[in-house]
């Protein structure tokens, strides 16, 4: 049985976020647990955002990954508690994000002052001379920023 | 056409539906901006905020379905209830109007929703506490975004200022309803001081005049709505009512 859970976990860990395909759901902290529920393998995931449209896709991909690993009848369950936080993003995940050109979340920044008064280093040139262009960017979890030094616009993965 | 469902509104079901309806109705209003916002960034911002609200509504409707155990589901609550069965605040069903109007509505509500969700994270009901914990993180951004716009519009050009002031004046009589007592859960009146602090602070930064508290509209929580909800639901529900069970 332990073997089965380990195999299932390895398979689930390969699933990537469809919107940020460099990150696996394990990097993101969206994959919460893989365990046996009776005779069935159960994978629990938690949404990053309430309305995250990627969740259905992720659940589907987990099912397919486990199926490929020879576990066809696994169950995927979504849990809301405890609420996902960007703190669960692993160090590997943060590094991958930066390399991908997305600035990783800066802890405790969601309730800062108005007009984006916070410092987000440019993921390309590391300059801190950056400014926010839009609070909501291509997806709900990102804001659009621009670097004043290298002039490149970039996504910032907002802190939650 | 498909008929409406009848909901057995126990106190907890009613409490859950009121929160869910707030989120769905405002989320739907924001979705009406899709493709029409004044800039691409704002088009995406409004759609994203709408999506957050839709997500909150879905989680709450699913929980209401579990509580009611009558075979209803999230789609049933959204698509197969008539306006008098909706329990949302009247403020949230008000039409989008111009951009200033939409931002003022968002701001006045977010300044309330943010402390509301925060208080609800301490709720003894684990599902409601979990929904609140997610929603509270989202409402912090909604409040910041709409606050920035209130300041920008109020302290902006002559025209933006005039429109922002008109929007605040028009919507103000709908704000009292947020603090009406409820049978269970959080007493919204306890959140009034924080709401008032936020609103006074932002309106003053926006150099806008805060209207006096005079007569306030009420009735949304018991299904007495303004003339605007019916047409909104007609559009939102049309597909499911005409083609029951239709799926994408
Ligand atoms: Zn740069």
Sketch the topology of chain B as an H/E string, one letter per element: HHHHHHHHH
Give the integer mean of the pLDDT values of chain B: 95
- Series of H and E elements of chain A: HHEEHEHEEEE
- Gyration radius of chain B (Cα, Å) is 18 Å
**Which CATH class of chain B applies here?**
Mainly Alpha
Number of DSSP-assigned strands of chain B:
0
Report the average pLDDT across residues of chain A: 89
CATH homology group of chain B: Ferritin, core subunit, four-helix bundle
* Coarse structural class of chain B: mainly alpha
Give a quick account of the main beta sheet of chain A: strands, pairing sense, barrel closure. Answer: 4 strands, mixed
N-to-C CA distance of chain B: 19 Å
Poorly predicted regions of chain A: none
**Total number of domains of chain B:** 1
**So, CATH architecture of the largest domain in chain A?**
2-Layer Sandwich
Proper CATH architecture of chain B: Up-down Bundle
CATH fold topology of the largest domain in chain A: GMP Synthetase, Chain A, domain 3
Task: Walk me through the topology.
The complex is a heterodimer of chains A (160) and B (248).
Chain A: H1 2-13, H2 25-28, E1 31-37, E2 40-45, H3 54-68, E3 75-78, H4 91-100, E4 102-103, E5 130-134, E6 142-147, E7 153-157
Parallel strand pairs in A: 2-3, 4-7
Antiparallel strand pairs in A: 1-2, 5-6, 6-7
Chain B: H1 11-31, H2 40-68, H3 74-79, H4 90-93, H5 99-120, H6 126-154, H7 158-171, H8 192-205, H9 229-242
Helix pairs in contact in B: 1-2, 2-6, 5-6, 5-7, 5-8, 6-7
The complex binds zinc ion (ZN).
